[in-house]
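Hi there,

I know you've been waiting on this one. I reran it after we fixed the sequence typo, so this is the corrected version. Both the input and the resulting structure follow.
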Amino acid sequence: MGSLKDIGTHAIECYNVSKHYGRGNSKLQVLQNLEMTVPKGKIYGLLGPSGCGKTTLLRCCLGQLNLDEGLVLTCGRPPLTRGHGIPGSRVGYMPQDIALYGEFTIKEMLIYFATFHKMSRRQANDRIDFLLDLLNLPFRNRMVAHLSGGQKRRVSFAVALIQSPELLILDEPTVGVDPLLREKIWEYLLQFAQTGNTTIILTTHYIEEARNADIVGLMRNGKLLAEEKPLTLMAAHNFPTLEQVFLKLCMADRIENDDKEEASVEVQMITTALDAEEASEKTHLLSGSEGRKVSYTDTTEPPPQASPDAIAQNGGTSSNGSAKPKPVRQKSYTPNYQYDMPPLKCSSLFPSVMNMWALLVKDILKLVRNPGLTLFQFLLPLLEVCLFYLAIGGTPQNLNVAVVNNEVPPYLSTWFLDNIDDSMITQHPVENFTTAIDKLEHGEYWGVINIPSDYSKNLVKRVQMGAGVDNATLIGSTINVTLDATNQQIAVSLQTSLLGSYQLFVTDILINISVNPAIGQIPLSFVEPVYGELDAPFTHFMAPGVMITVIFFHAVALTSMSFVVERKDGLLDRIWVSGVSSGEVSIAHILTQLLVISVQITMVLVFLFAVFKLPNEGSLFLIILMMLIQGLCGMALGLLISAVCDSETEAIQLALGSFYPLLLLSGVVWPIEAMPIPLYYIALCLPQTLPAESLRAILGRGWNMAYFDVWIGYVTVTGWWIVLLVSATIVLRVRR
């Protein structure tokens, strides 16, 4: 490490850095009092096995992770310092994953990130021409999805270089690639290093390939075992390869921790793996592959002679393994580094318009390049509304009902049966009641109409006797109906239809005998309602809730997977490092989905009013506004789900898990007044309950914002939207 007076003069400096994950018994220490210095204008190879903390260290250097202890200076200041440019344009980052959008062309991919770095179109095009030629990339308008694996990795490399960063961080750039491409990547790195203007840090677990680096740091279990030039390390330890140096340092570190038996087992496992890798490398090169053979594949050269200073630094002689290596000591102090904070600019207080524009164009391009999926998103809400109107609220048809008419000869009973609605009820004459009940029990009929013998005679007698009628006459003039009530809606529909048929039957009789038909009516009259219709279908009640529910949950579905997929593919990390804020990502996504939601709302309302004739007594503007806010609210919930979840499975389960509780408790299917009191008050707080009542008041009553029942719905859903959006933004900021 440099002296205290040199603090802040290197590309990266780490002092006493510690980082752990988890708590309690599950606590995992990833970085342990780590010290590291990366000089400017050099290639620094951070080497070590998978899981030793390399990626975590880089994320700390980029400000993506908070430290538990210690100090990290990147380009002279802690990352995330206001106006520092890290994350931002001063650093180029290539993650382990390809982290590219398959829907983009090569040029669009590079322009996308160039926009984040505030490059003009001319600057971007000149830089693209240079990178395409340097990296031997195909035609600039070739789709990324159609590139080979090696070409995609080179495009990913070009993205990291687009703004000519002074610091270039490559996380496992050669993992999973063939030796020829690995050699090509190193050739590119050496070309950039020759200028001296770019500091390059790369991580790898292919230890021997880093012999071309200016400095290597050998890392194990969150600590640097050594940090020096490759040749100096090999000379100091008198070994011809970095693998052997690394094994020796691992052994020394384990012995120092009093775990010799485990150390010997680990060294044997690492040696076997390295031998297999080296053999595979040599086999590939000897098979006739063209191109320059990089130096790290040749392990037969004699070991460099150790200088006296290097031997003294190693703590002993340089004879084959006889010296006990001196481990790199981790310093236990953190410098009190002071720096001047640049003045706060007004532009830093607001989201970047250029960043949001790039994100918005990206989302729209993804929609355009996936026409089938986009069309499906537009049409699915319309299809669901159409299915709702076609399947819900209609009158049941062709219900089989058995008729047992015991009257001989039939007279008034036939008159009654003729008044039954034939479109709903299909009558099946049956000889006797026992047979009819038996078939009812076997599911052949929904009900049995049983007309007693001498029905007409007893009915006339019942009217003539008035208050003095006897029980036998009452029983003989009563038609008995036995129903299968397992389906309540069908049972209620049959009752309503038969009661209406009987009322018509009585009216016809009274008119036939020149008697005022009002005498036969129940002395209860329902006059014209103030709002709505007495015989309005059930769909009129459900329609407002269905309208906002369809828009709400489609917004949830569209949004809940977005960040999960981009985080999994490494795309979110890449744009964070480019200086994009979580607020800018959220706003751009909202604007894109608002476009989708607007198309969905337009199509839904056109069909509801023009095709299905949904009555509307109020303001169309208020209806559209409510549906837009519901879409924004659903989008905010989707953003929160996407920010919280790490996998597509978790996001899908959480989104689906929220669907039925909100649907059942929001009063869309059944009035909330029928719920138990505690559940009733819970339902009132949900984002669809009061908004659905507001829409019913607008559609059916013609009310406006002057009424409490209307504006309270808008206040409720707006409150939910703000809370969910702020929560999603906070979670995104914390997780980045």
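Quick highlight: The first helix runs from residue 54 to 61.

Best,
R. S.
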